[in-house]
Amino acid sequence: MPHPVRAFAIRAFPFAVVALVTACGESQQGAGFHGFPPAAVTTLKLAPQTLPATYEYVGQTTGSKEVEVRARVTGILERKLFREGAPVRTGQQLFLIDPKPLQAQAAALDADLARARAQAAQADRELARLKPLAERRAVGQKEADDAQSNLEIANASVKAAQARLAELQLQLGYTRVTAPISGLSSRAPKSEGSLVTANETLLTTISQVDPMWIPFAVAENEQLALDHAVKEGRLTLPKDYAFDVAVQLADGSTLERKGRINFADTRINPSTGTFELRAEVRNADNALKPGQFVRVKLHGAVRNNALAVPQVAVLDGPQGKFVYVAGRDKDGKDVATVRPVTLGEWTSAGDTNLWIVESGLKPGDEVIVDGVAKLRPGAPIVLGGAAPAPKDAPAKAATKR
């Protein structure tokens, strides 16, 4: 049987809780949102400003000249005359393919040429002997004509032998494989003693790395968005793609020297839906190597009449990103109003990190930039002052996300 005092306490407990909540509610009426005092916030009044914009893409370095050095005659690779990976200069001999078989063929063709010249000389002497006799009708005209034809045939044979010998001498010259350009050599996949095949076997690759080229791709829809922004006056691009190009390496460091755009394709690649641009960067110190993945940052574009909010003011919600804007409720009290926004690139103004606003806000809106962590939609607020408006940012430009 339960203790009578304990049973009374259990039955009385719910009534005590209700009474306590009611009393608390009566004591906090008018204090704030759900009983909390109004949050003190700082606002920023939005105003259009001019902000530089930077567009960032992933590129892969390649030499300004890339040459595959291949064997031009079939034979045995006799010698390798350079150090793999070392710089080479134009005309420097890299390989020697065994020339002895071609030298023997050249000697045979040289003998054929000598025989053809002797036959031509004989035909010439025969024509010289018969031509006066034909004029005095001592011999028939047909004999003289045959002698003329024999001379012409002999001369043609000489030219044919000369052509065959010249072709073979050309092939003999190809046994000395030289560098067609100056640059950095690559690995030589074939070792001495290997059989190489004309026009097929790859001997090495040479890359001219000063200047270095960096091709990168721009998506078609992104380019269309830029074109629309330019047409509407919201964006100004450098004339003829005269961007200042900064190159960021894999470790996050940036090359001190700038590059330039030296090629912009006018065609869309149908397989990728992108079009290609190419940056050129000086590389005398070989800081860049062919095949590196880098980030290409294009500076020089300007956003006109842009609206930007500090990144600390932007929050994530179930429907996307939003900010709190200072507004008034029906009673004329200051409250925090949710405003969904569409954002563009990041930028910096001094020490303030900003986010470009594409839509959702307008000039004159007072965006809450301090105290947002304590806010709820419709919560009362106390305006504590206005944050200083960020100045134009010539040093750090907007960066594509």
Share in helix: 25-40%
Tell me the overall shape: elongated
Q: What is the end-to-end distance? A: 72 Å
Mean pLDDT: 85
Low-pLDDT regions: 1-31, 392-401
What Rg, in angstroms, do the CA atoms define? 43 Å
Strand proportion, as a percent range, falls in: 35-45%
Task: Please name the defining characteristics of this protein.
26% helix, alpha+beta, 401 residues, Elongation Factor Tu (Ef-tu), domain 3, single chain, 3 domains, disordered C terminus, conserved putative lor/sdh protein from methanococcus maripaludis s2 fold, six-stranded antiparallel β-sheet, elongated
Structure notes:
This protein has 401 residues and is α+β, with helices and mostly antiparallel strands. The chain folds into three domains: 32-48 and 307-399, conserved putative lor/sdh protein from methanococcus maripaludis s2 fold; 54-64 and 206-301, Efflux pump adaptor protein, beta barrel domain (Elongation Factor Tu (Ef-tu), domain 3), CATH 2.40.30; 71-194. The protein is built from four helices and 24 strands. Strands 3, 5, 8, 10, 13 and 14 form a six-stranded antiparallel β-sheet that branches. Residues 1-31 and 392-401 have low confidence and may be disordered.
